[in-house]
Amino acid sequence: MNISIQNKLSEQLALNPELTQVSVISSGHINSTWLLRCIDKQFIVQKLNIEVFKNPAQLVSNAKLIEQHLNAKQLQNNYPLEIIKHIATQSDERLIKIDSAYYRILNYISNSYSEDVVKNAQQSEQAAYAFGVFAHALQDFDAQQLHSVIPDFHNLAMRFEQLNTAITNNSVNRVKHCADEIEYCLSQQHLITELSNIAKQIPLRVCHNDTKINNMLFCNTTHKAKAVIDLDTCMAGFRLYDFGDMVRTFCSPEAEDSTNLHNVVIRKDIFSAIVKGYVTPLKSSMSKQEQESLLLGAKIMPLMLSVRFLTDYLNNDVYFKVAHAEHNLERAQNQLALYKNILSNEKWMHECLMS
Ligand code: ADP
Ligand code: GN1
Ligand code: MG
Fold first, then answer.
1. Which alpha helices (DSSP H) does 50-109 contain, by range?
2. Could you give all domains of the chain from N- to C-terminal order, each with its CATH number?
3. What is the Å distance from ligand 3's center to 340 Cα?
C-alpha cells in the first residue's frame, strides 16, 4: 500500500497519519489485506478485487445485514463468537473509493491467528463447530435478502461450462500441459446430476460458501475458534457446500497448493472431528436427508476447485492470485488427488457421517 493511500485511509478513520503503520497480511487468493496500526488501535484494511466482486456496494450491503443479524443474536446470548464489522468512516461510509479502487476497514480481532493447514482433530472440531454455530445463527435469516454477489458461484454445471470455454479458447496454449487433468475432470460430470437430484430434497440456506480453514480465527490463548471471517461469499446455497469446503481444506495434511501429492489424503480423525463439530449445533435443524447430502459436498468441493483452478490456468491466471506460472495447475492437481482419495474413502465417511 503506498503512503498516499495509507494517509487517506488514516484520515477517514480520524487517525493521525504520522502515527499509523501498515503491514501486509498475505493469505487469501482474492482480496488484498493489511493490518493498520495506530498507537493502541488496530484495523484490518482490505482492497476489494473488483474483477471478482463486480458490485462492492452489494457486498457491503450483504455484510451489513449479516452483521445486524449476528449482533441481535449476540444480544440474546445466542452467538458466542466475535463478529466482523465494517467500520464506518468519518463520512459514514463503509466503502472507501480511492483512485478507482475500493477499500474497506474491518474491526481487528485481536489475540487471534489463522491456520492454512489444520494441526489436529481438536482444531478441526473447534472450527467446524464455529462454522456450525454461524450457520445456526443464520438459520432464521431470509437468504433471499442477500445479493448474489457472484452469480452461480457454486453452480457445478456452470463451472464445467467455464472449463469447456477455456479449453476451446486455449488462449495461452496450455491445454497440452494439462490434458490428463482435463480429461479426468470431464469424466466426473455425473456429480452435476447427483447434485440436481439431491437439490430437490434439501433446503436452500444462508451459506458462508468459503469455509476454508484460514477463514476461521482462533484465540491465541485458549486456541478455541474466535471468529468466522471472510463473509464476502455469504449467499443462498446448500449446507453441503460449507461442509464440503471444510473437508476439502481441513482434512489433508498438505496445503492446497502442495505438490507432495502422495500425502494429499483424508485424515480420518480430522474428518470425524468435522462431522462432530458441524453437526452438533445443527442437529435439531437438519433432516436425515440433509445430513446425508453433506457427503456429496465433500466430493463436489474438491472437484469444483480442481475445475476452477484448471480453468484459471487455461485462462492465464486471471482470477486467483498466483506466485508462479504453474501455481494454478499445481493447485488443480492437488485438489484432484484429494478428490480421488475421498472417492476411495467414501464408504467409511458415509458411516461416520450417519452414525
Ligand atoms: P481473502 O478474501 O483474501 O481470503 P480474508 O478476509 O480471509 O481475505 O483475510 C485474509 C487473512 O487476514 C485471514 O486469513 C486472517 O489471517 C487475516 N484477517 C482477516 N480479517 C481479520 C480480522 N478481522 N482480524 C484479524 N485478522 C484478520
Ligand atoms: C478463494 O478469498 P479466499 O482465498 O478465501 C475463493 C474461494 C476458493 C478459495 C480456494 C471469491 O477464497 O471460492 O474456494 O480461494 N474465493 C472466491 O482457496 O472466489
Ligand atoms: Mg479468506
1. 56-75
2. 3-108 (3.30.200.20), 121-354 (3.90.1200.10)
3. 25
Count helices and strands in the chain by DSSP H and E runs: 11, 10
250-280 pLDDT, tens digit per residue, is 999 999 999 999 999 999 999 999 999 999 9
Ligand 1 pocket test, pick from 35, 66, 217, 321 with the greatest ligand atom count within 8 Å of Cβ, gives 217
Pocket test for ligand 2, best of 29, 233, 257 (most atoms within 8 A of CB): 29
State how far the Cα of 243 lies from the Cα of 302, in Å rounded to an integer. 12
Three cell numbers written together for 193: 446430476
Sheet with 101-107, edge to edge strand ranges? 20-25, 32-38, 41-47, 101-107, 96-98
Whether ligand 2 lies within 6 angstroms of the CB of 29 is answered as yes
Whole-prediction pTM:
0.96
Predicted confidence (pLDDT) per residue in 28-69, tens digit: 899 999 999 998 899 999 999 999 999 999 999 999 999 999
Phi-psi region of 151 (alpha: psi -120 to 50; beta: other; left: phi over 0): beta
Q: Which residues are found with C-beta within 5 Å of the ion, ligand 3?
A: 28, 215, 230
Q: In this predicted model, which residue has the larger pLDDT, 13 or 294?
A: 294
Beta bridge partners of 206: 236
